[in-house]
């Protein structure tokens, strides 16, 4: 992205990755690694794809970037067979925030015990 662009994908990537770690209540999640990957991908697509660039330059640029990053992160976590990828809500595939709704009860048992205790207490 150009230097004077109002949207900074690094900030959006950090917030998207933070949403996942907060939704699952995990203390140890490689936030920096995934945020860097998402930001690099957004920069590459901005350079290569005219349609993506037009959407990021539009009035809803930050929202569109967050939707795309949620989708990319969801797919990447499933493809890498991350341990708790199946616990993430399916709506994240279409770009919705994982913190928007609560996890379904039948998926909570897949979380580590410490995260389950935090969800019950909090």
Describe, in plain words, how this protein is organized in 3D.
With 122 residues, the chain is an all-alpha fold. Helices cover 61% and strands 0% of the residues. It has helices at residues 9-24, 31-48, 50-57, 61-79, 105-108, 113-121. The longest helix is centred in the middle third of the chain and has 19 residues, at 61-79. It is elongated, with a radius of gyration of 15 Å. The chain starts with 8 loop residues before the first helix and ends with a helix. The model has no long low-confidence stretch (mean pLDDT 80).
What is the strand and helix layout of this fold?
Blueprint: H1 9-24, H2 31-48, H3 50-57, H4 61-79, H5 105-108, H6 113-121
Helix pairs in contact: 1-2, 1-4, 2-3
Category from helices, strands and their pairing: mainly alpha
What is the beta-strand fraction? under 5%
| Shape call | elongated
Low-confidence stretches: none
Number of strands: 0
Question: What distance lies between the first and last C-alpha atoms, to the nearest angstrom?
Answer: 40 Å
Q: Round the Cα radius of gyration to an integer and report it.
A: 15 Å
* Oligomeric state of the chains in view: single chain
Order of helices and strands: HHHHHH
Overall mean confidence score, pLDDT = 80
Largest sheet: none
């Amino acid at each position: 992205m150009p230097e004077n662009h109002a949207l900074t994908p690094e900030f959006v990537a950090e917030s998207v990755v933070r949403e996942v770690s907060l939704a699952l209540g995990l203390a140890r999640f490689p936030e920096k690694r995934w945020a860097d990957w998402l930001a690099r991908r957004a920069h590459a697509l901005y350079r290569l794809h005219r349609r993506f660039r037009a959407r990021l330059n539009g009035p809803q640029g930050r929202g569109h970037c967050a939707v795309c990053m949620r989708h990319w992160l969801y797919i990447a976590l499933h493809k890498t067979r991350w341990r708790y990828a199946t616990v993430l809500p399916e709506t994240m595939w279409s770009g919705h925030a994982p913190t928007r709704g609560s996890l379904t009860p039948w998926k909570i048992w897949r979380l580590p015990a410490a995260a389950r205790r935090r969800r019950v207490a909090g």
